Amino acid sequence: MPSFATEVKNEIARLMYPEACDRTAEMAALLRMGGTVTFGPHHTFGVNFTTENAAVARKLLNLLKLEGAGVRTEISARRTRRLNKRNNYLVRIVPSPSVAGLLEHLGLMQDGSLNLGQEPKNLAILKKNCCRAAYLRGAFLGGGSVNRPEAHYHLEFVAPNYAFAHLLHRLMKHLDFPAGIAERRDIYVVYLKEGDAIVDFLGMIQADEAVERFEVARNVKEVREQVNRIVNCETANLQKAVDAAGRQLEDILVLEKYGVIDSLPEQLRETIDARRNHPDLTMSELADLLCVSKPGVNHRLRKLHALAEQYRVSQA
Fold it and tell me: What are the angstrom distances between the C-alpha of 78 and each of 34, 50, 123, 254?
């Protein structure tokens, strides 16, 4: 069964956008997240992009077809040696003189130098909110994950370097997402941990099916948690009632041991008989049985407890 993150990626990988700026922004982030620049003959550049998701590989090929300025691509797949035995898909942009133009267009190269971490300058790909959303969508496709909504809420990007993680974090903050950033061993993680923020993010990247599923699962989870709270509260109240009844029966046994029950006022004797005959009743149910108020029953039982304590102390 595919993970929830894979299902989200499969959904948004099917999307294609009419605006060239959105396609450019998405491809730029996708290649920054999962691409490696290679070198060919005559000082030419190429790019290798690796993913375990076939839909993401197809998405990159489609983007390159539309925005790749005639670069040549190759794709290959191989089975990994890990236990899950998933395929690894390699999309290769073959080194050629035209690749440098593509890298400049995507902000991965500036003034002839590679720029794989910092924010692209003099480009429109991060100027509009729609392009920022597309950029984050590409980053999620290349290195994002999100937990199933039935589990704890967590969405993250695993960035290849701090500079790129800082850029993603700043973009998230600019779009009013409560994102955090952390170092985890040799990688950097930008994350969301609030359910509402994750829903909003999935909506922004147009993962509408995932949003619907997330909302349904979250509602079920919240109802289950509410039921559990009620059950736990009722269980705690029941335990308190059982403990109180146990203490009251112990007081009665003390009074019975010293033969003082028959000399007690009638109201206290009635209360003793009711508690002995109905040890499982709550205080409210005991009050109803005796046709008195709950404070009235409490008052009687406190009197019995005080009297029993006198005998306990006298014999200590």
Answer: 17, 11, 36, 81
Q: Residue 291 is encoded by which pair of tokens? A: 């046709």
Question: Domain spanning 4-206 has what CATH number?
Answer: 3.10.28.10
Q: Position 69: which residue type?
A: A
Per the confidence metrics, is the pTM higher than 0.90? no
Please state the domain extents for the chain. Answer: 4-206, 237-314
* Neighbour-count burial of 89, counting CB atoms closer than 10 A to its CB (0-12 exposed, 13-18 middle, 19+ buried): buried
Give backbone dihedrals phi and psi of 96, rounded to 5 degrees, phi first.
-165, 165
Alpha carbon of 162 to those of 118, 137, 184, 251, 316: distances in Å? 10, 19, 11, 69, 72
State the 10-residue block means of pLDDT for the chain, 316 residues long: 89 89 92 88 89 92 84 84 72 90 83 60 73 94 90 90 90 94 89 93 94 85 81 83 85 86 88 87 86 88 87 75
Pairwise CA distance, residues 200 & 211, whole Å: 8
Dist CA 223 CA 124 (whole Å)? 45
